[in-house]
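ESCALATION

Customer reports they have been waiting on this structure for their group meeting. Please prioritize. Original submission:
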Amino acid sequence: MFSAEFLLTSLVVVLIPGTGVIFTVSIGLMHGRLASLYASLGCTLGIVPHLLATILGLAAIMHTSAIAFQVLKYAGVAYLLYLAVATWRDRSAFSVQEVRQKGDTASLMIKAFLLNILNPKLTIFFLAFLPQFVATDAQSSLEPLLGLSAIFMVMTFVVFVIYGQLAHAFRAVVINSPKVQSWLRRSFAAAFAGLGLQLALTER
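Update from on-call: job pushed to the front of the queue and completed.
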């Protein structure tokens, strides 16, 4: 079930920088190692609703319904643009201490969760990608589908954690340079806006 083709393809998909990676890297730079870990967990948990949608057949409905797809797509676009504006307007210095308070960690996880749950392409990905690796002679597709999804989620979490830790390793350089902070903040804002525009222009 866990073929080399599935593992390799999943790894490539996870490694490609997207909204989750950019968010996790920005959190690792601004708030530290622990915060990036919570961001990685939130992004990973954001996969669960898409998995449930696929299992329940909702993904097929969204794939055939232009209205359902557009509603979810533009909700994602709006959220990405909100993150872009919030990041651009934030003029506070990057925090030296890691996020530890429950309220802060919950807020980070919710933001990361929303990033993935509002991504309609992820649901389509589950609908088109995972079933290809389920054996046609399987008595039930539920168990192998859950197994493949679990592997994909573990890979997502591990890769995102690595991205966050690498970002944390460069914090000293960032914190000691206000110019670098300003450049990074604008770059992250532009990246969120660009991803939002890209999502707005994509079709099913």
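Sent to customer with the following note: DSSP finds eleven helices and no strands in the chain.
Escalation resolved.
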